[in-house]
Structures are given as C-alpha cells and as structure tokens.
Design brief:
Blueprint: H1 5-15, E1 25-31, E2 35-40, E3 47-48, E4 62-63, H2 73-84, E5 92-95, H3 107-115, E6 122-126, H4 134-140, E7 145-148, H5 155-161, H6 170-183, E8 187-194, H7 202-215, E9 219-224, H8 239-249, E10 253-255, H9 270-281, H10 288-295, H11 299-311, E11 315-320, E12 323-328
Parallel strand pairs: 2-5, 3-4, 5-6, 6-7, 7-8, 8-9, 9-10
Antiparallel strand pairs: 1-2, 11-12
Helix pairs in contact: 2-3, 3-4, 9-11
Length: 329
C-alpha cells in the first residue's frame, strides 16, 4: 500500500511531540551523492509541479506552480540551530524532501539565515521546472551545490515521465536551466532518471546529449527506478544498460553508486533505534541495508527492531524487484 498524506500526518502527530524528532529536518542520512546529508523539508507532503511516474513518495497531492511560505522561516532556523548542537555527522545541508523546495517562497531568506549560523555547504535538489523564473534562479545562486533534474527533453516525453503541471513547457524549462548554468558559480550536477522502455531510447538520448552540451554541467548523474515507484509500470534499467548510456553521454556522466557505510560510535539503544527507523521510513521505503548504512547499527539489531514495528502494526513489508522494503503503514 502506498505511503499517503494521511498516514504521513498521523505519524507526525504521534512522534513529533517526542524530543529529538524534528518537523522540518531528517537525517543526517548517507547520500550516494552528498555524503552525510541533513535533509531540510520546507514544502508539505507531495506539493509539487510534477507528478512523476517513478516518485517514491506516491502521487502528487497538489500540482502547483505557486510559491508559498508554507512554514514560518524562524521555525525552520530554530530546528537547524538545535541539530547543529548535537553530535551528528553532517556533510551537506540539503533542501529536498516531501515536495519541490523552490516552491517555498522564503527559500532565499532561509539560506541567508543558515549562512549566518554555520559554514556547512548548502545543496538544493530541484526538479528544474521553475528555473525560468528570475527570482528562483536568484535564490539558488546562494547554494554551494544545485542538483537539477532533467529526465525528458521533449514535451511528449516530459508528459510521459514527469506528468507536469499543464502550464509547463519543457523548452521553457531548458532555457531557464541554461540561463541558470550561465549565472551560477557553484557546483551543478545534472540528474537524469531513466525509466526502462520510456525515456531510454536512442532518439531521446541523442536530444538529451545535445542538451547537456548546451548546459555544460559539472557532472551528469544517471539514476534509475530504485525504490518502489508511484506507478508499477516504471521499471529500472540494469547496470549494464546504465553504463552504456553513461559512455554515450560523455566524460561528465556517471552512474550514481551506493554510499559506503560509516559506523556510528554511539552505544546501541533499542528505543532510539526504533525512533530513528520510523523517521527514515516516514520519508521513503527502505531496505535493511539502507537503514544499516544510514544509522550504523548491526543488521541483526535492525531486523529485530523491524520485526517489533511490524508486530506493532506501524510498518509493512513489501517486495519490489526482488528486494524487501519497509514502509510506514
């Protein structure tokens, strides 16, 4: 069963009252791209400009292009101040999470506030759809790293893979992305998520390669459908297929690989582990190995905690592409 908005809110009502559980922060978790990444979630669940067929969070609940101040800026800053006092490894502060982060109207101001309290680098993961807007490009100039996505380079493919807001046009988005690449002085890693049999054809890849040459990103990171997607017809590419496409797209392209585990030194606590597992599972379906890499606990202890959570009817087990995932119930 898919992770729904109602279940998300229900979970927060239970656990947000407990200490050390944050409303707008999650992690730090190991990212295949960013090391230990502290996620900053500034948009409510599944408010987005796209409704991608592969999204691990389920269907978009509000398809919009309107920026809003969804949460008080100081509320978010207060949580960041608090977590910075804790002994946790953080390599990046990353704007991502439940919705499209550029829809948060106070994004620029928030980044300036964070800059004033920590030297940690800021990253923004965006679907690129609003980069045609000058105000949003200006906000993103403050980030140390921007990871825009571009899964489709024709309008037909854009509709097939990303199911955009009806006002969005892929050519306008690409032109906005080109402008941003010209203006931006930080690192820019273009992410391309490939869905088997949909946006991986040679014809589409040829146009994609030409577009990448116009953009001149620092990296092109190839991804595929790893976690249970919104639509069951969204299937992953194999490693060999991804490697062939990487070679085709040129020297800047790379296949995103798993991040190696960094052991946690803190003593094991069953109650603490259970709480941390719930925090991770609330964001996306995860495997035992995902939790092991994120938290550093022994797999046996993780298995015991997962069994207890299943018996308590808090999580469920699902099988996707031959792998066992756990999601919030």
């Amino acid at each position: 069963m898919r992770f729904t908005k109602t279940r998300f809110k229900s979970w927060w009502n239970v656990v947000y009252k407990e200490k050390k559980i944050y409303r707008h922060l999650y992690g730090p978790v190991p990212s295949r791209r960013l090391g230990y990444s502290l996620g900053i979630d500034i948009v409510p669940y599944k408010i987005c400009s796209l409704d991608c067929i592969y999204c691990q969070l389920g269907r978009t609940t509000k398809l919009t292009l309107e920026r809003e101040s969804f949460y008080p800026l100081e509320e978010i800053v207060t949580e960041i101040r608090q977590i910075l006092t804790e002994d946790v490894p953080i390599d990046y502060l990353t704007f991502s999470g439940s919705g499209e982060p550029t829809l948060y109207h106070e994004l620029g101001r928030l980044m300036r506030k964070i800059r004033a309290i920590t030297p940690l680098p800021l990253a923004v993961l965006t679907n690129s759809t609003l980069l045609y807007r000058e105000d949003i490009r200006h906000d993103l100039l403050m980030a140390d790293l921007v990871v825009p996505s571009l899964d489709a380079v024709t309008q037909e493919m854009f509709k097939a893979v990303n199911r955009p807001h009806p006002s969005l046009d892929i050519e306008t988005i690409i032109e906005g992305l080109i402008k941003f690449c010209q203006e931006y002085k930080g690192q820019l890693w273009l992410e391309v998520l490939l869905v088997k049999g949909i946006n991986d054809s040679l014809d589409h890849l040829q146009i994609l390669r030409d577009t990448i040459r116009r953009l001149q990103p620092d990296k092109v990171q190839l991804n595929t459908v790893i976690r249970p997607p919104t639509e069951t017809f969204a299937h992953p590419l194999g490693n060999e297929e991804l490697e062939k496409i990487r070679n085709y797209l040129g020297s800047k392209a790379e296949v995103v690989v798993d991040f190696p585990r960094r052991d946690r030194k803190a003593a094991f606590s069953s109650e603490k582990l259970t709480k941390e597992i719930l925090e991770i599972v609330s964001r996306r379906p995860v495997t035992i190995e995902d939790i092991h890499q994120a938290l550093g606990y022994h797999r046996l202890e993780i298995s015991k905690a997962l069994k207890e959570l299943k018996q308590a009817n808090k999580i469920r087990e699902i099988n996707h592409q031959g792998r066992i995932y756990f999601e919030l119930k």
